[in-house]
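Let us work through a complete example step by step.
Step 1: write down the sequence.
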Amino acid sequence: MFMFDDEKNARTKERANQKRKNKEKKEKAPKFRKEKGGARKFVAAFFGVCVGLVLIAGLVVAATNIYMIKTVEDQIVTVDEAAALRKAGNDFQCVEVLGASIRNGKPSSILAKRINTGLAAYAAGVSDILLFSGDNGTNEYNEVTSMRAYAFLQSAYQLDEDAVFLDYAGFSTYESMYRLRDVFQATDAVVVTQEYHLYRALYVADQLGVNVYGIAAPAQEEGQFFRDVREVLARTKDFFYVLFDIQPTYLGDPVELTKST
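Step 2: predict the structure and record it as tokens.
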């Protein structure tokens, strides 16, 4: 009989232990769900911050682009209008043609269009000086000498040898404009490039204190989408470069934009 009671007591204790274990599991389960819910909240908050930062960046890019374009859009003129401005008393010290890629030592199609437009402005009397600004970062890559060689092949324009100046350190639009003011000492100029690019060039020069107008070269349709995307970001970059007065890679001794006598 005592053995039976002991066995009964053992089973009772076992059931009691099992109930206790089940209760502990139930008590732990809500804590686990709470911790899991906290992780979800953290991920959601992190994602929200990322989305917020992307939205803010997008607004900054959009705002700087709109502001830049609206600020200078009235400064884009035709060759004839630029010539009329010269006759009206605007002393343009140069027509600056901005560089672009070269292939096998020759200007790409988009660059050739810029040079031709610059030559047309020169021939129309917009300025007596042509300034070619581009990238000569290595001995093997020299945009400006290619631009000069191409220009002198266009015999219809009767270009004078001493009318052409070269800016070898125009590594970017921003640097070309900065050097236009600080190296070539221009206070009044006409800038030539495609329209999508002109807004940035004119804005930078304008903010640096140079009185500028722009002449748009014919567009290059092929690959324009990618150039437009790049330009949107570049406008924002140069907006802040101007704001913080970022120095160009090279400056150097002043160069006077006048023909030799």
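Step 3: interpret the result. The helical segments are 2-72, 79-87, 109-123, 143-153, 173-182, 195-207, 224-243.
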